[in-house]
Design brief:
single chain; about 800 residues; alpha/beta; Rossmann fold; Dimethylsulfoxide Reductase, domain 2; 4 domains; 6-stranded mixed sheet; 6-stranded mixed β-barrel; 35 strands; globular
C-alpha cells in the first residue's frame, strides 16, 4: 500500500520549534526511512530496492557521493535515511502522464510548491508545450527528437545552445552527452559542480595538480585527526557518520568547524549496532568551533601561523616533505609572520584560546584528514580559503600517506564522474586531442559557458536553446527571478527528467519533457540488460544495475535519449567522423571502450569497472606524491586576509538544506535534527540578535538584500526561529533564499555563486498576507526589485 500524492498544497498553520538534536540517526532514522519508503513504494517494492542499494551487484544511490566500503565489508543495509528517501522518490509507484497535464495548466502548476510538484510521481510520456500554449501535450519520441534537431540546426552558431548536466547522470551518459555537444560544435557544458565544488576544483588543480580529493575511506578510518569544515554530514552525507565512528573507535579526534552545532557533527547513534540502538551512541566532535560565517580563511591562516611558531621547538612540520615536494613555503611563512590577530578574531568570531586549542590538535596529529563541503566553497574568497587548507596540509606533509589527505565531500552522486567524463566548459587540450583521435572530428577549443554565464546568455538573448540532462536548473541556480526570466525567454527548453520539478514550469516558449529511466530500473537495450558506472567522492568507479521494471513502457535511458538526439541533429555518422551512436546505444560496453581510449586514467575501463567493487582512478599526489603542476611541485600560496564586515543593522545569511530534502528535491516540511517542523520559510537567528533587532521569536520577517548598485532583493514572510548561531549570522533554507543571491556575486577564480555569505537585513513583515506568498517553497515569482536584472557584487568585503 502506498500513500496517494497530495492533491493540494495546504499551508502550514504554524511552524513548530523544539530543541535541536545532539545526535544523528538511531532508531528514529530507521523508522522514518522505512515509513517514507512504504508510502512511496509499498512494502514489497521497498524490500526489493533497499536490499540492493549500494551493494556490489546492486545499484548506486542517487543521493550523495560518499564512497562504499569494499564489497566484503558492506552491511546488508548499506544506506542511510536520506538515501532511502532518495530511492523512494525515484521508485515511487505514483505516475504523471498525459491525463495529469491535461488537468493542470502551466499557469496552475506555477502556483504549486516544489514539494507538491515532486510528490506527484514519475513522468511516463514525452510531453511538449507548444509556443503560446498553456498545457503540455503528448509527443512521440521521433517528433521530439526532430523538433530539437531542427531548432539546433537553425541556430546561427552552436554557441547559441546551452547543455546543462546534473550529477545524477551516469559516466556513460555524461560521456556521450559531451561527445554529442562537442560534435555539434560548442563547449557550453555547464553542470551542477559550477554551483557547488567548482572552487574546490580550481584551488586543488592550482595547488596539487588535480581537482579531486586525495583520500580513501581507509584514510578516514586511520586518521589521528579528522577536520570537518563547512559540512553537515548527518543530513548531507549520513553514511560518513559510520566512517567517523570507526575513526573514533581507533583513537581519532574530530574537529568540527561550522557556524551551527549540527547533530551529525556532535554524535551518532549507529542503528546497526547494539550501542546505537540502545541510544548510547558515539560522541563525534572533540571540539566544535562555532565559527562566524566566512571566517574559515582567517582560521586556517591563524592555524598555519601557530603551527609555524610551534615548529620552532621541532617536530610539528614535515620539513622533508616540504623540501622535496613543494614550492612557495618561505613566502607563505613570511606572510603569516605578519598576521593581524585582531582581524583574525573579528573574521572568525572566536577567541584566541579556541584557535590555539585548534592548532594544538593539528600539531599533535601525525595523520590529518581535512574534509569540507559547501560551507567552504560558496563564498567570494572560497578558492583562497581552500588554498589555505592545502597550505596547512602541505606544511605537515598530510598528503600522499596513509591516514591523511584532502577530502572535499561531493554532494551529488556522480558530479565528480561527470567532470571526469568531460562535462566541463573548459575543454583540456589533452582531452580534446583524444576526442579528435578517437572519433575523427576536431572539437571546439574555445571556452564555453558555466552556469552563471549560461543564465546571462539566456537573459541577454545570445543563447536561445537550453537542454538539461537531469537536475532542476530553475530552482538550483542563483538570482531566481533572473534565472526564471532567462529560461522563459529561450526559444526551446528541453529537460531529460524522471520527475516533475520547477524547471518544467519555468518553460521556454517551446518546452519538452523527455522522461528517462532512473538508476533503480532495468535498462534493456538491443544487446540485453545494461549497467552504468559512477564515480564517488574518493575517485572509486563502480557499476550500477537497476532491479525494477521501468515506470512506463515509453521511458528511455539517458544514453538512448542522448544518442537519439545526436542522430537526429548530426546524422548517424557525421561526415569524416567515426561516431556510431547506434552501437553505443545498443551496448554500453562500446561507450566504456571509448572512455578507455579518451579519458586519462581509464585504460582498460570496461574490464576494471566490471570487477566487484570497481576500481580507483589514479591520483598522483595520493599515489606517489607527484604533482602535475607547471613545476612538478605542490604549491604553497599566499592570499590576503579577507574580513567580511557587515553594516550595522544587517546580518550575514547562509543557505542550507533541511534534513527533509536533497538539493532541490523536498521530501517534506520537517527538519528533525534542528527541531523545526511544519514549514520551510524560517530564518534561524541568535536569540540576542532577535532582541537587538527588536524582533519576536515566531514573528514574520522579510529578508532584504541591498546591493551596491542600488538593487534590492526581498523574500517575504519568514518565521523567526531562535537558534544557536554566531551573533550576526543567520541561516535559511535553499532554494527558498536563492532570490537573494545576485548572479554577479560569485567566488573569485571559480565563478561559484556566493550562497553562503549574503548580507541582508531582517524587516518585520508588513502584512500577514505575505506569509502565504511563500507557504512551502519558492513562489512562482519570488519577490525582487523592479530592476532585478541589475546585479552587483557583495559589498563590505574588505581586504
Amino acid at each position: 500500500m502506498t500513500t496517494p500524492a497530495p492533491q493540494d498544497d495546504v499551508p502550514a498553520t504554524q511552524v513548530e520549534v523544539g530543541p535541536p538534536k545532539t545526535t544523528a540517526a538511531g532508531v528514529p532514522a530507521v523508522l522514518v526511512a522505512l515509513n517514507r519508503s512504504r508510502e512511496q513504494m509499498g512494502v514489497v517494492r521497498t524490500a526489493r530496492t533497499l536490499t540492493r542499494l549500494n551493494q556490489a551487484h546492486g545499484f548506486d544511490c542517487m543521493g550523495c557521493a560518499w564512497p562504499d566500503p569494499r564489497p566484503g565489508d558492506r552491511s546488508r543495509a548499506e544506506f542511510c535515511e536520506n538515501g532511502a528517501k532518495a530511492v523512494a522518490e525515484e521508485a515511487t509507484v505514483r505516475r504523471v502522464g498525459p491525463d495529469f497535464f491535461a488537468a493542470h495548466s502551466l499557469q496552475d502548476l506555477a502556483t504549486r510548491s516544489d514539494y507538491w510538484l515532486g510528490q506527484q510521481g514519475r513522468l511516463t510520456h514525452p510531453m511538449v508545450r507548444r509556443d503560446g500554449a498553456d498545457h503540455y501535450t503528448p509527443i512521440s519520441w521521433d517528433e521530439a527528437f526532430a523538433l530539437v534537431a531542427s531548432r539546433l540546426r537553425a541556430l546561427g552558431s552552436p554557441d547559441e545552445a546551452v547543455f546543462y548536466t546534473s550529477g545524477r547522470a551516469s559516466n556513460e551518459a555524461a560521456f556521450v552527452y559531451q561527445l554529442f555537444v562537442r560534435a555539434f560544435g560548442t563547449n557550453n557544458l555547464p553542470d551542477c559542480s559550477n554551483m557547488c565544488h567548482e572552487s574546490t576544483s580550481v584551488a586543488l588543480a592550482e595547488t596539487i595538480g588535480i581537482g579531486k580529493g586525495s583520500v580513501s575511506l581507509d584514510d578516514v578510518h586511520q586518521a589521528d585527526l579528522v577536520v570537518i569544515c563547512g559540512q553537515n554530514p548527518g543530513t548531507n552525507h549520513p553514511r560518513m557518520l559510520t566512517a567517523l565512528e570507526k575513526a573514533k573507535q581507533r583513537g581519532a579526534r574530530i574537529l568540527a568547524v561550522n557556524p551551527l552545532p549540527e547533530a551529525g557533527l556532535l554524535g551518532f547513534r549507529n542503528p546497526q549496532t547494539p550501542r546505537g540502538v540502545s541510544g548510547v551512541g558515539t560522541t563525534l566532535a572533540d571540539l566544535h568551533l562555532p565559527i562566524r560565517t566566512n571566517g574559515d580563511l582567517a582560521l586556517f591562516q591563524a592555524v598555519g601561523a601557530l603551527l609555524l611558531d610551534a615548529d620552532a621547538a621541532g617536530g610539528v612540520l614535515d620539513h622533508d616533505f616540504v623540501e622535496r615536494h613543494t614550492e612557495g613555503f618561505e613566502a607563505w611563512r613570511k606572510h603569516l609572520a605578519e598576521l593581524d590577530w585582531d582581524r583574525v578574531l573579528e573574521a572568525t568570531g572566536l577567541d584566541r584560546a579556541q584557535i590555539e586549542q585548534t592548532a594544538a590538535m593539528f600539531a599533535g596529529s601525525r595523520r590529518t584528514v581535512i574534509c569540507w563541503a559547501m560551507g567552504i566553497t560558496q563564498h567570494r574568497n572560497a578558492v583562497a580559503t581552500i588554498k589555505e587548507i592545502v597550505n596547512v596540509a602541505l606544511a605537515q606533509g598530510n598528503i600522499g600517506k596513509p591516514g591523511a589527505g584532502l577530502c572535499p565531500v561531493r554532494g551529488h552522486s556522480n558530479v565528480q564522474g561527470d567532470r571526469t567524463m568531460g562535462i566541463w566548459e573548459k575543454l583540456p587540450t589533452h582531452f580534446g586531442d583524444a576526442l579528435r583521435d578517437e572519433f575523427g572530428f576536431e572539437p571546439p577549443r574555445r571556452r564555453g559557458l558555466d552556469v552563471v554565464d549560461s543564465v546571462r546568455a539566456l537573459r541577454d538573448g545570445s543563447a536561445k536553446v537550453f537542454v538539461a540532462l537531469g537536475g532542476n536548473f530553475a530552482a538550483a541556480a542563483p538570482d531566481t527571478p533572473v534565472t526564471y526570466a532567462a529560461l522563459e525567454s529561450a526559444d526551446l527548453t528541453v529537460h531529460v527528467s524522471t520527475k516533475l520539478n520547477r524547471s518544467h514550469v519555468t518553460a521556454g516558449r517551446t518546452s519538452l519533457i523527455l522522461p528517462t529511466l532512473g538508476r533503480t530500473e532495468v535498462d534493456l537495450q538491443e544487446s540485453g540488460p545494461q549497467s552504468v558506472s559512477v564515480e564517488d567522492s574518493m575517485s572509486a568507479v563502480h557499476l550500477s544495475h537497476g532491479p525494477l521494471d521501468p515506470a512506463g513502457p515509453l521511458l528511455r535511458s539517458e544514453v538512448a535519449i542522448i544518442t537519439g538526439l545526436a542522430e537526429a541533429t548530426l546524422g548517424s555518422a557525421p561526415e569524416g567522423s567515426r561516431i556510431d551512436w547506434a552501437a553505443m546505444r545498443a551496448d554500453y560496453r562500446r561507450i566504456r571502450e571509448h572512455i578507455a581510449h579518451v579519458v586519462p586514467g581509464c585504460e582498460a575501463y570496461p574490464e576494471k569497472v566490471e570487477q566487484p567493487g570497481g576500481f580507483v582512478l589514479p591520483h598522483p599526489p595520493r599515489d606517489s606524491r607527484t604533482f602535475e603542476t607547471p613545476d612538478g611541485r605542490a604549491q604553497f600560496t599566499v592570499s590576503p586576509l579577507d574580513v567580511l564586515r557587515v553594516p550595522d543593522g544587517h546580518v550575514l545569511l547562509q543557505s542550507l538544506r533541511s534534513h527533509d530534502q536533497f538539493n532541490t528535491t523536498v521530501y517534506g516540511h520537517d527538519d528533525r535534527y534542528r527541531g523545526i517542523s511544519g514549514g520551510r520559510d524560517v530564518v534561524m537567528v541568535h536569540p540576542d540578535d532577535i532582541t537587538a533587532f527588536g524582533l519576536e521569536a515566531g514573528g514574520l520577517v522579510d529578508l532584504v538584500g541591498t546591493w551596491e548598485d542600488g538593487s534590492v532583493r526581498v523574500v517575504r514572510g519568514f518565521r523567526v526561529v531562535p537558534y544557536d548561531t554566531p551573533r550576526g549570522c543567520v541561516a535559511a533554507y535553499y532554494p527558498e533564499v536563492n532570490p537573494l543571491v545576485p548572479l554577479d556575486s560569485t567566488a573569485v577564480g571559480s565563478n561559484c555563486p556566493t550562497s553562503k555569505s549574503v548580507v541582508i537585513r531582517l524587516a518585520p513583515t508588513a502584512s500577514a498576507d505575505h506569509a502565504a506568498v511563500r507557504a512551502f517553497g519558492p513562489s512562482p515569482r519570488p519577490v525582487g526589485s523592479d530592476d532585478h536584472h541589475k546585479s552587483g557584487v557583495q559589498p563590505h568585503h574588505l581586504s
